[in-house]
User: Which sequence fits this backbone?
């Protein structure tokens, strides 16, 4: 029984739709994105609807996620970074919920699509560029000129420019590849279970071993799902910090 | 050589990227532990840097995966 571990990432249209030669179908990916957005906003709204001094379990979960992100922004960008709290919080919650919804067996991982992560990453970089130019004007270009002797600048300025330009790529590929690799690994081990289980005799009993391994990898993937959302958010904060304070805040 | 076979070999070779990622992640956590055991008071304040270093290291290995995918599917 041959199984393709990449099959789970296939995008299937649910409501086919073509406008002006473009395929804008409502797909399983769009469906999951809607579910994630609705579930996240519904949870945060419902949890905070009955505000009490002694928080209930759901209220304290919402408050903890708020404080977690607020602390993260404050420590990495300082007080004036808090203007970007809604942006970073939305990114963090969206990526976190997408990763966690993807962990439900049989569902679809939105963040395993490079299109989604690259859109998020380019949004971050565009925000950084717009913020930088709005705050410092043309002086934002000083970001590419570190404090160094003049001869070294000929080497350092191209490096700084290249490292700035590769940020959207590394930011998006990190999230996408982590999710892709994790889910592929789970599917490959699930294939072992099926192969061993259908072999018959002693081999069928042995299929418990890869099954146990899947449970362990699942736990690891839950950690990775949180960690990648955290890394995405904190890198956003670090890039925003550079746009706000250039080189003087390291 | 057949192009398909060469693609398979190339994709396999792209997995060598994991060597660097493995060394890097080992270094990040090893250095953190040795630092944290010398000065446990400062350990908690460095978890952000720890996770950041881990993620940056891990990404380099995953770029290898992306290159393997590009080789296989283009």
Assistant:
């Amino acid at each position: 029984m041959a199984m393709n571990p990449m099959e789970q990432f296939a995008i299937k249209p649910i409501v086919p739709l073509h406008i002006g030669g473009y395929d804008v179908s409502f797909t399983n990916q769009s469906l999951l994105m809607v579910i994630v957005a609705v579930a996240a906003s519904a949870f945060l709204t419902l949890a905070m609807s009955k505000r009490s001094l002694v928080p209930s379990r759901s209220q304290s979960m919402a408050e903890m996620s708020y404080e977690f992100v607020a602390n993260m922004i404050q420590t990495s960008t300082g007080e004036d970074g808090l203007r970007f709290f809604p942006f970073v919080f939305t990114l963090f919650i969206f990526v976190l919920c997408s990763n966690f919804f993807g962990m439900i067996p049989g569902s679809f991982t939105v963040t395993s699509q490079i299109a989604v992560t690259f859109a998020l990453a380019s949004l971050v970089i565009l925000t950084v560029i717009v913020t930088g130019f709005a705050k410092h004007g043309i002086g934002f270009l000083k970001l590419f000129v570190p404090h160094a002797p003049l001869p070294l600048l000929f080497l350092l300025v191209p490096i700084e420019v290249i490292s700035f330009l590769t940020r959207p790529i590394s930011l998006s590929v990190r999230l996408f590849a982590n999710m892709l690799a994790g889910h592929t690994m789970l599917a490959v081990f699930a294939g072992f279970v099926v192969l061993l289980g259908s072999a018959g005799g002693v081999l069928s009993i042995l299929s418990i071993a890869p099954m146990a391994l899947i449970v362990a990898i699942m736990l690891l993937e839950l950690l990775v799902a949180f960690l990648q959302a955290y890394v995405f958010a904190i890198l956003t904060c670090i890039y925003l910090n550079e746009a706000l304070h250039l080189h003087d805040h390291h | 050589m057949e192009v398909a076979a060469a693609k398979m070999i190339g994709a396999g070779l792209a997995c060598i990227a994991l060597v660097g990622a493995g060394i890097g992640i080992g270094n990040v956590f090893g250095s953190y532990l040795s630092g944290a055991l010398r000065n446990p008071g400062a350990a908690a304040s460095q978890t952000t840097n720890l996770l950041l270093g881990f993620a940056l290291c891990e990404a380099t290995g995953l770029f290898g995966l992306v290159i393997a995918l590009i080789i296989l599917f283009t």
Remarks:
- Chain A has one domain: 7-49+58-245.
- Chain A has eight helices and four strands.
- Strands of chain A lie at 13-15, 18-19, 22-23, 26-27.
- Helices of chain A lie at 28-47, 57-77, 85-102, 114-136, 150-165, 167-197, 202-206, 208-245.
